[in-house]
Specification:
Largest sheet: 4 strands, mixed
Number of strands: 6
Helix content: 55-70%
Strand order of the largest sheet: 1-2-4-3
Strand content: 5-15%
Structural class: alpha+beta
Oligomer: single chain
Number of domains: 3
Radius of gyration: 35 Å
Distance between the termini: 11 Å
Number of helices: 9
Shape: elongated
């Protein structure tokens, strides 16, 4: 069964030093567009979360927000290597510019990267972060599945309506040749004042030419195939968003062709209704994974 691309999930865990909060929000997008925030200090863990998201979702914009709420302030550490680099650069600058005064410790520790908060080790953090991410992603997926069921019902209903319009068109198309003949006979009588006897052979030839130019048998057959494929995609186990979008485009193309070829008022009305239904179908499909 199809899934929606709109969903939300939330989870929370406690590590040794922090409360871990994970929220996942997904929206429709042509491809899988992923944004992870909150793990800037843990690039390796961010890659792991990215891999997890790919296991859950095939399409959609996915925003994963991870918040680490420290229960107490982490101890400070001094990055001696960075401090040495700063000190050497500043001493050389002072010599080059012939500046008086030495480099104070107060100045040095204020420079970026010299004083750092000791972060929780990655392995310990991942032990608590991984289940929280799994829970949030599972919730988001379940949300997408629930909405996907509603989408499937709506799409199947639209397909049923399209099939009814298609049946009406087929019924009207069956009598088109007879209608052409009657119209042509009436038109000839109007022009000649009923003074000329019609040649049945010539009349049948003209009717056949008109019927051939307006024949929509192939278009109707293709519409049936597309609708059957759409039903199978909606009820199948695989993500079907791209396929359904393609089928919607093909249905619109066939409807336009039928409208251009058909010369019957009833068929034209049915095609207009089909176009409206196809547009509704396309709008719903935009949110299918």
């Amino acid at each position: 069964m199809i899934r929606s691309m709109t969903g939300y999930g939330h989870a929370q865990r406690q590590s040794h030093s922090a409360t871990i909060v994970v929220s996942v929000k997904t929206l429709n997008h042509k491809y899988l567009d992923l944004k992870i925030s909150g793990l800037e200090a843990y690039p390796a863990l961010e890659l792991k979360v990215q891999e997890m998201v790919g296991q859950y979702f095939a399409r959609g914009h996915v925003a994963v927000q991870i918040t680490l709420e420290r229960r107490d302030r982490a101890p400070l550490t001094i990055n001696t290597d960075i401090a040495r680099v700063y000190a050497a650069a500043l001493q050389k600058l002072a010599q080059d510019l012939q500046l008086a005064g030495g480099l104070s410790l107060d100045t040095l520790v204020r420079l970026e990267g010299v004083l750092q908060r000791a972060e929780e080790p990655e392995a310990e953090l991942w032990e608590h972060l991984e289940p929280a991410v799994h829970e949030a992603l599972t919730q988001a997926q379940e949300s997408r599945t629930r909405e996907g069921q509603l989408l499937a019902e709506e799409l199947l209903q639209i397909i049923s309506q399209l099939e009814r319009e298609l049946a009406q068109i087929e019924q009207s198309a069956a009598g088109v040749k007879k209608l052409y003949k009657e119209r042509l006979q009436e038109r000839v009588r109007e022009l000649t004042g009923n003074a000329v006897e019609l040649d049945e052979g010539r009349l049948e030839m003209e009717v056949a030419l008109l019927a051939e130019r307006s024949d929509i048998t192939e278009e109707l057959a293709r519409v049936k195939i597309h609708l059957r494929a759409a039903r199978e995609a909606i009820t199948g186990p695989e993500p079907a968003g791209r396929l359904l979008d393609f089928l919607a485009q093909e249905l619109a193309r066939e409807a336009n062709t039928i409208a251009a070829k058909a010369k019957d008022a009833q068929i034209t009305l049915c095609v207009l209704e089909m176009k409206s239904l196809i547009e509704k179908f396309r709008e719903q499909v935009r949110n299918v994974e």
